[in-house]
Amino acid sequence: MRIAIRSRCLLLPDESKKIPSLKAGCIYIEKGKIVKISTETVPEPAETVIDVGDDVVMPGLCDTHVHMNEPGRTDWEGIETATRAAAAGGITTLVDMPLNSIPPTTTVEALELKRASARNTAYVDYGFWGGVIPGNLKDIEPLIKAGVLGFKAFMIDSGVTEFPMASSEIIRESLPILASHKVPLLVHAELESPVDIKDQSAKSYNHFLESRPQRWEVDAIREIISLSKEMKAPVHIVHLSASEALPEIEKAKEEGVQITVETCPHYLTLKSEDIEDGATHFKCAPPIRENENREGLWNGLQQGIIDFIVSDHSPCTPQLKNRETGNFETAWGGIAGLQFSLPVIWTEMQKRGLTVGHLSYWMSDRPAGFLKATGKTGKIEVGADADLVVWDPKAQFTLTEKEIFHRHKVTPYLAKRFQGVVKKTLVRGELVFDSGKFRGPMGREVTQT
User: Fold this and answer.
1) Where are the domains of the chain?
2) Which one has a higher pLDDT value, 40 or 359?
């Protein structure tokens, strides 16, 4: 079957620039692949023609940092609910983190359990990261051969007992194995050290913010840069929140260190000055910091020091957020919001004069390039999987609970007004989300090129 999608706003690669631009035309899809791109607006013969008018047709988002929590903590989220939310948000590929599920993805046996859970359940395409923890060095190579796309390690307590932190020595031992297979180590980069906390109220957001200072991230990133240099191995810093680390990262990149960096919508759009005491739905680790820090992250993104934006969707049950007591010390740290990454970032971009091309570059192109999965290029180009999102960049909405498709409705974005409405999501040419309705599940596990 040949499908033609016609729009006056196709986001197509620009040979002279790294940022894609909008053009009128048609995309032709056969057997799940893009087979032709034309700037002619009258479509060639096709069994199905989808005319979306002035809506933007863009590469589907690639979110490489999602906690689906299945099996084992499916009451927190789940593969079906997470991937439905992803589809509704224009995300066509996501990668599941190895922790918060039970068992964590630190052995091949655990990986196979996750695969069994995802099969015939996921609405979008997916992959799995493995984990590096004390005692599983022997499991790393079998996990690579079994198909994990890379590995995650924590340099600080992860918050769950089944996924303990990895010391610098454990990371050093793991890196040669990863380097030999050309897969990255993704690092939660915080190194704990003594902190003088002035605000002693556990309900105070300032108390929580003071408890995880920027220097924890800076110290950890320095250590990871040193290890990457020593072992000549690729490393990736997840969810950067500390702008003070940017000079270290910039210098490392200039020296040829194999380091990439992500940040998240909550760090780019929220600021600590607006977070009220007891508002534990804003708690995440590392924390949301001050406005000045947020501006530093935007600068780092625009300068190319930060490579891309992903959600770090890390939900839990409402009870674990301690909404009734407002205790930041004991509340689970994680932001739920993968469904709204696109409008949250686009709304902020409008204030900064950034374009749809920038959004796609940071949320489709760059994360897909990091992932290196077969067919997932993050671009509208011939030969790529037909992973597309159709959305209206001018439409506005106020987020209410009825629009939320992930399992629980606890999110810092609730009741806020955003710009950018996802209308359709296609995965390998199949329409999985269309104006609030789903078709599927039809997601497949991705493989690395």
Assistant:
1) 2-57+385-393+420-437, 60-371
2) 359
